[in-house]
Amino acid sequence: MSTQVARPAAPARSGVATALGWLLTIGLNVVAPIITYNVLTGSRGWEEFPALLLSGAWPVLDTVIHVAWRRKVDEFAVVTMVFLVITAVVGLVGDHSARTLLIKDSAVTGLFGVLCLATLLAKRPLMFYFGRKFATDGTPESTAWWNGLWQYEGFRTTMRRMTLVWGVAYVIEALVRVVLSYSVNTRTMVVVSPIMVYAVLAALGVWTALYGKRSQAEGERLQAEAKARAEAEAVPEGRSEPAEAGRGGAPA
Q1: Residue 41 burial class via C-beta count within 10 angstroms: exposed 0-12, middle 13-18, buried 19 and up
Q2: Which phi and psi (to 5°) does residue 123 adopt?
Q3: The whole model's pTM is what?
Q4: DSSP state of 120
């Protein structure tokens, strides 16, 4: 019989630090690239391709700051590094146009979506590992608690369903951005592209949080029902008879 691993106490987190982290991420990944591109192509007279390429340096700075802050490389840092490798490859061997770089952005999120879908065939889907990243503090105790949840069918279903939704959403998002890259001008896509990325991420994040809470509540309900049934089955059949007899013999 397997024993569920008790969840360790969550470490205290500063709300101010979390807010600053999000402001920094949005500033360096959305606001700064847009301003840089507009300044370079406007008053500086740069061509679209080098301006767009240079504006992509801000996410690199964001990754460096987060790695220095947390003193470890997380999944998002790895994704960013993949993004930079694709950027370099496109810049060297691809068509030297701004549209190529915009399509490259779509390729990154599209490949992430395909990766999500592909891991549904693996032993554990990708969202299991992303969930462990955010639901634990990285200690052996919290990691063991998360790994222990895999024994429950409801937890496995939740992780697979989350992975499926994220995969489909990012494949669709990538296809939409490719179509837009050919339909609207580069200046507009420089604004629209990062907004789409973070809008989809925010929508998926909200859905994941709500679905996760609902699945957790359902799991706790089923666990409580199973415990109640087990306790009821453990009570001997004749245990309540004396009490019933006593009540039956009491004077009216």
Answers
A1: buried
A2: -60, -40
A3: 0.63
A4: G
For 149, 186, 220, 247, the CA distances from 226, given in Å and listed in that order, are 17, 58, 10, 31
- Contact between 116 and 125 under an 8 Å Cβ cutoff? The reply is yes
Helix (H) or strand (E) run with residue 210 in it: helix 186-234
Chain-centre distance for alpha carbon 137:
16
Residue type at 246 in one-letter notation = G
Residues in the chain predicted with pLDDT less than 50, given as ranges, are: 1-5, 9-14, 241, 243-252
Please say whether the dihedral angle defined by the alpha carbons of residues 213, 129, 4 and 222, taken in this order, is positive or negative. positive
Separation CA 129–CA 138 (nearest Å) = 12
Q: Which residue has the tokens 């008790």?
A: 6
CB 86 within 8 A of CB 104: yes
> At which residue do the structure tokens 């089923």 appear?
222
Whole-angstrom distance, CA of residue 206 vs CA of residue 217: 17
